[in-house]
Amino acid sequence: MRSMTGYGRKTEEIDSALVSCEITTLNSKYLDMNIYVPESMRPLKIEIGEIIRKYIKRGKVDLRIEIVNFQEPPITFDEELLKKYRDELERIRQKLGINQEITMEMLLNLPDILRPREIENRERILGLVEDTLKDVIEMREREGENLRKSLEEKIKFMQDEVDKIINETSSALVKKKEEIYQKLKSLSELGLSISKEDIEFLGFRGDVDEEVIRLKSHLDLLHDLINQEGPVGKKINFVLQEIMREVNTIGSKAILPGTVHRIIGIKEKVDEIKEQGMNIE
Question: Which residue numbers delimit the Endoribonuclease YicC-like N-terminal domain (predicted)?
């Protein structure tokens, strides 16, 4: 289980330049990528996105690559293009009889003469991205382990409360049904008979056996999910909805103030897990 919060930054010398890759990840319902690269690296954006998908399935990912420092000048001159511009301008100047001289300033303002120095080592750039992502994943796994420990404590609390509800409700139901039976026995004087089987029906409101069985099953599944590898955040959210459904039903049938109190405590834990689950991949 991983958190969706992570950060990584690495710098490497590539083609006489210091290149920095910085990645920040936050929680999001889906995989949302923002990739910022220098113009010369734009052709790599698709491949960078594929590498991100290889490591991250869910969350907001901001990746930024910057050229921190060139050991050589950061721009290049296109000498061939410069020569073509000069020759063509000279031809036009002579043909039209223009006396103005062709200056370097004039040539440098023409399109594409000055260009940012390109980093051509594609494999090393993609390798830098992958190495940075590995640091991000390591942090997400550490955060995920902290989340897992916290969730285990909350799940254990809910399991213990459910066990207490079972014990309390079982004893209370037996007592309540006996009380009803004794009171209704007086109906025999009116020629009506009532059996303990009839009381089972009358005492149905407090019977939560089916709901408790399903609730315990959902809690076991939740415990299994937080101990699995890979993306489990969406599954956790679904199981929490099922848990809350059973908890609400048990609460509506409660016949003891103590059961109501325990239900409130379980709901609070479910809400806490929901909030934490928003940051689980």
Answer: 1-148
The rounded distance, in Å, linking the Cα atoms of 2 and 229 is 8
Residue partners of 58: CB distance under 8 A and separation at least 6? 4, 28, 29, 30, 31, 231, 233, 234, 281
Give per-residue pLDDT as tens, 216-243.
999 999 999 999 988 999 999 999 999 9
Nearest to 2 by CA among 63, 64, 55, 61: 55
Q: Which has the closest alpha carbon to 281: 216, 226, 215, 241?
A: 226
User: pTM (2 decimals)?
Assistant: 0.73
Distance CA 100, CA 97 (A): 9
Domain membership of residue 106 as a residue range = 75-114
For residue 128, the domain's CATH number is 3.30.230.10
- Cα 8 from chain centroid (whole Å): 17
Would the pLDDT of 3 be above 90? yes
Residue tagged 């209370």 (tokens)? 172
Q: Are residues 180 and 245 in the same domain?
A: yes
Band of pLDDT at residue 79, cut at 50, 70 and 90: confident
